[in-house]
């Protein structure tokens, strides 16, 4: 019988980096205030509601558009490059994965469950942290913002991650038995559009909010019921 795989979002699911991303966005916007014509500051609520699901380029484009500012490709390139530099300089402060991550991936590995990552972050942001956490070997498939043309909430990334895992599993995986761990509504929409189940993680939202867009909700990966997860992957 075909079984499912497990695909993880990265920021806010494996690594506690969402607040760091917001800090970097605001640092860049402040540094480029003269270029864009005004000071723009994104609140945590605005970031969570409107921008967190996107990769850097899409986020900056939406931030500027919402502020009534036209942005050409050259400006977006500069904004993204500046944020990449700031973010890379701060990665050393992220010392460990979020609660429950290590135990969950080790459980999945012991059961032979295929695992991957689908993230709106860049590969250069994901791999160094996985290596620092000692988790890189657990994720043979990583689909980053570098690997897709249309990022979340579009399903391209999750479709690609599933397809790559299915190749590794010799075509034995079933979409309807596969599970995604996500911390955003937009990411969950992408996973659902790819035909995958979603367990929402309340890293950046309340459990009540997460239950509105996820098939199941947990406060953290430490709260995942492993027996129920095993059933989802095989039922």
Describe the protein's architecture and organization.
This protein has 235 residues and is an alpha/beta fold. The protein folds into two domains: 6-16 and 95-234, HAD superfamily/HAD-like (Rossmann fold); 18-92, DNA polymerase, domain 1 (Orthogonal Bundle). 48% of the residues lie in helices and 9% in strands. It is built from eleven helices and six strands. It has a six-stranded parallel beta sheet with strand order 3-2-1-4-5-6. Helix 7 links the parallel strand 2 (115-118) and strand 3 (141-143). Helix 1 (18-31) crosses helix 5 (73-90) and helix 4 (56-66) crosses helix 5 (73-90). The mean pLDDT is 95.
Descriptive key words:
single chain; 235 residues; alpha/beta; Rossmann fold; 2 domains; 6 strands; elongated
How many β strands by DSSP?
A: 6
Q: CATH superfamily of the largest domain, please?
A: HAD superfamily/HAD-like
Biggest beta sheet summary: 6 strands, parallel
Average pLDDT number: 95
Distance between the termini: 9 Å
Strand order across the largest sheet: 3-2-1-4-5-6
- How many helical elements? 11
Strand residue percentage: 5-15%
Helix content: 40-55%
Helix/strand-derived category reads alpha/beta
The CATH topology of the largest domain is Rossmann fold
* The CATH C-level class name of the largest domain: Alpha Beta
Order of helices and strands: EHHHHHHEHEHEHEHEH
Low-confidence stretches: none
Number of domains: 2
């Amino acid at each position: 019988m075909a079984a499912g795989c497990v695909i993880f979002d990265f920021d806010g699911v494996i690594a506690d980096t969402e607040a760091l991303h917001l800090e970097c966005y605001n640092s860049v916007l402040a540094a480029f205030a003269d270029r864009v014509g005004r000071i723009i500051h994104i609140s945590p609520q605005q970031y969570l509601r409107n921008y967190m699901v996107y990769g850097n380029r899409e986020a900056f484009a939406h931030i500027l558009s919402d502020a009534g500012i036209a942005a050409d490709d050259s400006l977006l390139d500069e904004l993204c490059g500046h944020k990449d530099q700031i973010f890379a300089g701060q990665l050393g402060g992220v010392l460990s994965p979020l609660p429950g991550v290590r135990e969950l991936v080790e459980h999945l590995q012991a059961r032979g469950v295929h695992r991957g990552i689908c993230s709106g972050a860049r590969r250069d942001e994901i791999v160094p942290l996985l290596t620092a956490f000692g988790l890189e070997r657990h994720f043979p498939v990583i689909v980053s913002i570098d690997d897709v043309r249309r990022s979340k909430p579009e399903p391209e990334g999750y479709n690609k991650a599933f397809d790559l895992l299915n190749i590794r599993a010799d075509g034995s995986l079933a979409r309807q038995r596969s599970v995604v761990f996500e911390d955003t509504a937009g990411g969950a929409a992408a996973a659902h559009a790819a035909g995958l189940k979603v367990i929402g993680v309340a890293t950046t939202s309340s459990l009540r909010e997460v239950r509105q867009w996820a098939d199941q909700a947990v406060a953290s990966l430490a709260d995942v019921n492993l027996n129920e997860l095993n059933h989802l992957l095989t039922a």
